[in-house]
Amino acid sequence: MKILALESSAVAASAALCEDETLIAQAFQNSGLTHSQTLLPMVEHLLQGCSLTPADLDLIAVAAGPGSFTGLRIGVATAKGLAWAAQRPCAGCSTLESMAWNLAGFSGQVCAAMDARRHQIYNARFQVDGQCPRRLTPDRAISLDDLVQELAGTQTPQLVVGDGAQLCYDALTAAGIPAVLAPPNLRMQSAWGVARQALALAQAGQTLSPAQLVPVYHRLSQAERERLEREQAAQTPHPQ
């Protein structure tokens, strides 16, 4: 199965072209340019370099969330456009689980963390057995204090991964919870992990049509939060 995978959930963007579990080509860019400038050119370069077109692919996968609202929208829109044009199915992958797939060759517990701002991280925890990750929690937006409370008393080292790994590592170790930072080359989000999760979804019959593919934000955007705050303020009676 030929899979094109896209990752644009955070600052960096990447694309990977795989056949089953074999990586054929990969591109990564963390240059400060927006994903709207980098993602599609990377895809075009990968396909041209492998003498392929979108019609030659079996599946188009994307990190659908959580992550940057703008980054997720760009990634999902790119995947939908490619899939619609080529009439191919999609896989909407969890950004956090995709990071755990990057570490599937390890054995132990993986704690995936992304900086969600507002004193929170996007987080999920996994057990990896040397082959694939198994979920211990759902994807969620959680405070570091709540994560520390959840893991209080555990003696199982947490292998911490993601762009929020350092924040998470500092909080866990300060609380006496054993934690290890993932190696730098495996720490950040990558399209290779997205491709590996997409293959598992396809094997489980959990692919989507382009119309069904949507971002999964896990919390309201800043604009939506501000709108609700204004509406609540307008409905609050003022003292006479």
From TrEMBL:
Molecular-function GO term, any one: transferase activity
Pfam families, per the entry: TsaD
Protein name, entry field: tRNA (Adenosine(37)-N6)-threonylcarbamoyltransferase complex dimerization subunit type 1 TsaB
Alphabetized InterPro entries for the sequence: ATPase_NBD, Gcp-like_dom, T6A_TsaB
One GO CC annotation: cytosol
Record-annotated Gcp-like domain positions: 34-148
GO biological process, one term: tRNA threonylcarbamoyladenosine modification
Xref: SUPFAM superfamilies: Actin-like ATPase domain (SSF53067)
Keywords annotated in UniProt: Transferase
